[in-house]
Amino acid sequence: MNTTSLNHYDNSWFRKQIGASRSKQFAWYFTNILFFMNPLNPSSALKIHILKIFGSKLGQGTIIKPGVNIKYPWKLIIGDHCWIGEKVWIDNLAVVEMGNNVCISQGAMLLTGNHDYKSPKFDLIVKPILLMDGAWVGAKGLVGPGVTIESHAVLAAMSVANKDLSAYTIYQGNPAIAVRQRIISN
Fold first, then answer.
1. What are 69-78's pLDDT values in tens digits?
2. Does the global pTM surpass 0.90?
3. What residue ranges define each of the domains in the chain, with the CATH number in brackets?
4. How far apart are CA 138 and CA 108, in angstroms?
């Protein structure tokens, strides 16, 4: 039986895909700690301004709560009137794109990277995440690489999405399965 050999792990190919100079990455590392991960900074307006400086594309009216961790802001696209809750982790090795009116509840994780468990070298796999208009990721929900959450779909609290979620459907569990339709009344 073959085994994993992490001493052969090589993600040097990914350095070219980071999309920023070492100095920009270094500057972001400390900015992220001081202004985003720091629970004492409640100002969404300041965070939005900083994200734009670092290359994020952001719409209007977005709220970013304290304790948020963003890997690479230059790989982040957020539409209008989105909500990013406390202690959300956006581990965007690839692009994370949110439509309008998207809610990422507290403690949720958006993970664009994983590893090939079949490879003895534990190769890095990177795929984008797309959250369409009105999508909602519940508290401590996890969205994996390559997942699209379609319009107004819901990932319930503490659930894991490793496949696409259909529009206007509520999913829960690990792995997340459809449990009912999302009906929004007037």
1. 999 999 999 9
2. yes
3. 20-181 (2.160.10.10)
4. 7
